[in-house]
Structure to design on (372 residues):
């Protein structure tokens, strides 16, 4: 894109937290660094300040509001697309994508920006989700996501669907990272039992999808067989999911694991938690589109294991095949974890799952699209 400044607008429900939001800021930063104009439309949130500090612009529109009133934003967005002379409009979520598509379709063909969508998840298959396949280019965040699109929406031209893996910033998760003494002192003051135990970590949202029950059973079985292990469940203790959290705590109590499994809540120091972990796990009971929580520790050289399906299986297959476990196979899960704790193979390769590769390919896609 040398010599041509583009105006790129990314659209998503809000800028709070999560993989979609993080990816939006990463692409926004790459655009600014490359000399382009970066705009983001969302309902706002705590990450707006970071976005603005990075040199992007933000327009607050409630494009993720789950109400018919969201249709009022169509005309406003159409006016913004026209007045700001947007070259690329990039929708990253289903409801905002409908607003974008309706606004985009209402412009004269000669005034339309190029339309891009990203399929971040393996959404339910229906007309509502199908809007994510209407981009002139459809980015799939993994080969798993690409297969999902082509298998479930056979009318989509495969040439329009491009796999751009999400990536990890190797500067943020370096292979030689070690927590400093201050953090370690604070950590072990809060969790003194972890000094003498091998640490298994399960990061992610506290939802049934994430396989917490399998993790609790795994830790209990290892303890019963004499292993000095401790399980960390790292994720937001959302009051809206209190009944599920209470259910998990009862499961822990029923197994007698109150002093062997710790709920840390949401943490901002996940890199440090990875660094003191002996093994990081992903046990989602359904395939997911990607697997950032196995990719991040692997980037640091920390062993990771997970169920061999979806994006997690895809990453493990390329980076750490020793960590692949048949989904739902409790016996193999236990055996594989025991082996990895006792004699973990080194993480010998990382592949191309880097932030730099992701942003370079995304910006190259924008450039190719505006030139066609």
């Amino acid at each position: 894109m040398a010599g041509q400044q583009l105006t790129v607008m990314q659209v998503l429900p809000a800028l709070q937290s999560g993989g979609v939001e993080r990816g939006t800021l990463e692409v926004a930063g790459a655009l600014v660094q490359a000399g382009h104009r970066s705009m983001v439309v969302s309902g706002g949130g705590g990450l707006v300040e970071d976005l603005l500090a990075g040199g992007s612009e933000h327009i607050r529109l409630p494009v993720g509001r789950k109400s018919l009133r969201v249709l009022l934003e169509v005309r406003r967005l159409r006016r913004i697309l026209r007045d700001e002379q947007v070259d690329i409009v990039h929708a990253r979520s289903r409801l905002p994508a409908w607003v974008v598509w309706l606004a985009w379709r209402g412009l004269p063909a000669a005034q339309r920006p190029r339309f891009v969508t990203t399929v971040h998840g393996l959404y339910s298959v229906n007309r509502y989700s199908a809007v994510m396949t209407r981009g002139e280019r459809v980015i799939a965040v993994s080969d798993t996501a690409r297969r999902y699109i082509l298998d479930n929406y056979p009318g989509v031209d495969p040439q329009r669907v491009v796999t751009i893996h999400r990536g990890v910033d190797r500067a943020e998760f370096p292979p030689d990272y070690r927590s400093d003494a201050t953090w370690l002192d604070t950590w072990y003051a809060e969790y003194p039992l972890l000094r003498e135990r091998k640490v298994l970590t399960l990061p992610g949202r506290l939802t049934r999808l994430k396989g917490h029950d399998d993790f609790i059973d795994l830790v209990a079985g290892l303890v019963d067989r004499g292993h000095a292990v401790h399980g960390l469940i790292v994720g937001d203790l959302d009051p809206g999911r209190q009944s599920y959290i209470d259910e998990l705590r009862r499961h822990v109590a029923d197994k007698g694991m109150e002093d062997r499994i710790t709920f840390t809540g949401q943490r901002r120091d996940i890199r440090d938690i990875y660094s003191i972990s002996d093994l990081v796990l992903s046990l989602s009971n359904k395939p997911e589109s990607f697997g950032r929580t196995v990719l991040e520790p692997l980037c640091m050289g920390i062993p990771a294991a997970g169920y061999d399906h979806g994006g997690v299986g895809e990453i493990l297959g390329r980076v750490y095949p020793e960590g692949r476990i048949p989904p739902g196979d409790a016996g193999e899960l236990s055996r594989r974890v025991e082996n990895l704790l006792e004699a973990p193979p080194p993480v010998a390769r990382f592949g191309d799952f880097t932030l730099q590769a992701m942003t370079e390919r995304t910006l190259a896609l924008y450039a190719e699209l505006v030139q066609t």
Observations:
- The mean pLDDT is 94.
- The longest strand covers residues 37-42.
- The two ends are 13 Å apart (CA to CA).
